[in-house]
From TrEMBL:
GO terms for cellular component: cytoplasmic side of endoplasmic reticulum membrane; endosome membrane; Golgi-associated vesicle membrane; lumenal side of endoplasmic reticulum membrane; lysosomal membrane. Keywords: Endosome, Glycoprotein, Hydrolase, Membrane, Signal, Transmembrane, Transmembrane helix. Gene3D superfamilies: 3.50.30.30. This is PA domain-containing protein. Residues 40-117 form the PA domain.
C-alpha cells in the first residue's frame, strides 16, 4: 500500500543544498540517552534553543512533519533534517485538511544510518558540511513490473499446481457453474489432503472478522503484536514451504513418496517430509532474525508464495455465486478501510496498519521487492489478500474448464488471468497518476476479474 497522498512541504527535496552544521544541531526529544550531548531539538516540543543560521536535526516520530518544520522555523533554523526510523526514504506529507501550513525552510528526510553518523560526529564537536541533492525518479518502475509478474505467476502456478505438479485429477463435480452438492461437500479429505470449500455465508463472516482484526491492529499496534504476526507468518510459511517442497520432490522422484517412517504422536509419515521440515523451519527462523537485512525480501517472498500456493490448494470456491459474494465483500472491505475510514478514524486504517508501528516493524503478510532502479530506494509491495481473493476465482475457473473440457481460448481461465493482470496494471497506473495516493488494489482487481464471468460472456465462450 502506498503512502497516503497529501501536499508536499515547500522544499521537501533540496537540490545541491550546501549546509553548514556547527554543533548547534539538535536531536529529537524522544531520542535515546546516547543523544544527551546534543542540544534540545525542534521535534514535537516548543522548548528549544535559538537555531538562527543553523540546520536542525530531528528524529521521525511523535508528531507530524509539518509540526517539526514549524517549530524549527520558529526557532530561526534555515533548514531541517528529519532522521528516518529505517533506511528507506518516504515522501514527507501532511494531512489533506491542514490548511495552516506556512513552512518556507527546506525539510529533508535522511536514512537512519546517515543520521546516527551525523549525530555521533556532532557529539564529538565536529563541524560538518553536507551536500543534499534530489535525484530524478524513473518514470516506469521496473521493480513494480517484477512484482506484477510475481503476483500473476503465483496465481497461475497455484491454479495449475494440482494437475501438473501434484498430478491429481480434477474433481468431476465441477461440471457446471453451480456445483453439485455431494457427500464430501464442506471439508473433505482427498488423499490425506484437507480441502475447505468456502460458502457465501462463510465469505461474509470472514470479511467481518478481517475488519475486526484490522481495527485491533490499528488501535493496539505495537512491537509485540507485530511479532505475533511474524510468528504466525513463519508457521504458515513453514507449512506452505514444506507442502510445496514435498510435492515437487515427490513429482521428480516418485520413490521418495513411497518411503515412510513411524513417529510418536504423528504415526506413519513420509521420510521425505521428516527431512524437509527442519530445513523449512531453519529457513523461516533465519528470515525472522535477519528480516531487516537488505536481502530479507527474498526469504519473505519465498515463504509468502509457498504459503499462498498452499492456501489456494486448501481453500476452494464451489461455484460462481460464492465467488461473486466473496469478491464483492472483499471489494467493499478494501475500499472502505482505505478511502472511507479516514472520515471516521481521522486517517486511513488500512494504510496506518500497513505502515507498521513506530519501532519500524511492519506486518509481513505481503510480497515486496526493492526498487533497484530508483535512487530513492524503498520497496514495491502487494498484500496477500490482493492475490488470494482473485486467485480463488482464477483457480476455480481452471478446475471448471478442465472438468467441462473447455479449451484455453474458449474457457474462463485465460481471460480471468488476463483480467487480473489488467486490474493489477490499473492499480499501479492509479498509484502513478495520483502521485502515490494509497489505492485499494481490489477496487481494480475485482471488476476486472468478475467482469469475465458475466452471463453474456458465458454464451460467447461456449460458442465454437
Amino acid at each position: 500500500m502506498a503512502t497516503h497522498h497529501a501536499r508536499r512541504l515547500p522544499a521537501a527535496a533540496a537540490v545541491l543544498l550546501l549546509v553548514l552544521l556547527a554543533g548547534g544541531s539538535a536531536a529529537d526529544d524522544a531520542s535515546s540517552d546516547d543523544d544527551a550531548g546534543v542540544p534540545p531539538s525542534p521535534g514535537c516540543s516548543n522548548k528549544f534553543q535559538l537555531l538562527t543560521n543553523y540546520i536542525a536535526i530531528a528524529q521521525r516520530g511523535e508528531c507530524a512533519f509539518t509540526a517539526k518544520a514549524k517549530i524549527a522555523q520558529t526557532g530561526g533554523a534555515v533548514g531541517l533534517l528529519v532522521i528516518n526510523d529505517n533506511e528507506e526514504l518516504y515522501k514527507m506529507v501532511c494531512s489533506d485538511n491542514d490548511t495552516s501550513i506556512n513552512v518556507t525552510i527546506p525539510v529533508v528526510m535522511i536514512p537512519q544510518s546517515a543520521g546516527k553518523k551525523m549525530k555521533g560526529l556532532l557529539d564529538q564537536g565536529a563541524r560538518l558540511e553536507v551536500q543534499l541533492y534530489s535525484p530524478n525518479r524513473p518514470v516506469v518502475d521496473l521493480s513494480a513490473c517484477f512484482l506484477w509478474i510475481m503476483a500473476i505467476g503465483t496465481i497461475v502456478c497455484a491454479s495449475l499446481w494440482t494437475e501438473f505438479v501434484a498430478c491429481e485429477q480434477v474433481d468431476e463435480r465441477y461440471n457446471q457453474l453451480t456445483r453439485k452438492d455431494g457427500p464430501n461437500s464442506g471439508t473433505t479429505n482427498r488423499e490425506d489432503k484437507e480441502i475447505f470449500e468456502i460458502s457465501a455465508k462463510g465469505a461474509i463472516v470472514f470479511i467481518l472478522v478481517a475488519s475486526v482484526f484490522l481495527l485491533l491492529l490499528f488501535y493496539f499496534m505495537s512491537s509485540w503484536f507485530v511479532w505475533l504476526l511474524i510468528v504466525l507468518f513463519c508457521i504458515g510459511g513453514i507449512e506452505g514451504m514444506h507442502v510445496c517442497l514435498v510435492t515437487l520432490l515427490t513429482r521428480i522422484c516418485k520413490d521418495c513418496g513411497q518411503k515412510t517412517v513411524q513417529l510418536p504422536f504423528f504415526g506413519e509419515v513420509l521420510t521425505l517430509s521428516v527431512l524437509i521440515v527442519p530445513f523449512c523451519t531453519i529457513f523461516a527462523i533465519l528470515w525472522a532474525v535477519y528480516r531487516h537485512a537488505s536481502f530479507a525480501w527474498i526469504g519473505q517472498d519465498i515463504l509468502g508464495i509457498c504459503l499462498m500456493i498452499t492456501v489456494l490448494q486448501m481453500a476452494r470456491l464451489p461455484n460462481i455465486r460464492v465467488a461473486s459474494a466473496l469478491l464483492s465483500a472483499a471489494f467493499v472491505y478494501d475500499v472502505f478501510w482505505v478511502f472511507i475510514s479516514p472520515l471516521i478514524f481521522h486517517e486511513s486504517v488500512m494504510i496506518a496498519v500497513a505502515r507498521g508501528d513506530n519501532s519500524g516493524e511492519a506486518i509481513p503478510m505481503l510480497l515486496r521487492i526493492p526498487r533497484f532502479f530508483d535512487p530513492w530506494g524503498g520497496y514495491d509491495m502487494i498484500g496477500f489478500g490482493d492475490i488470494i481473493f482473485p486467485g480463488l476465482l482464477v483457480a476455480f475457473s481452471y478446475r471448471f474448464d478442465r472438468a467441462s473440457k473447455r479449451g484455453l481460448f474458449n474457457g474462463y481461465f485465460l481471460w480471468l488471468t488476463v483480467g487480473y493482470a489488467v486490474g493489477l496494471f490499473l492499480t499501479y497506473l492509479a498509484l502513478f497518476l495520483m502521485d502515490g495516493h494509497g489505492q485499494p488494489a481490489l477496487l481494480y482487481l475485482v471488476p476486472c476479474t468478475l467482469d469475465q464471468t458475466r452471463p453474456d460472456k458465458w454464451v460467447s465462450l461456449t460458442q465454437p
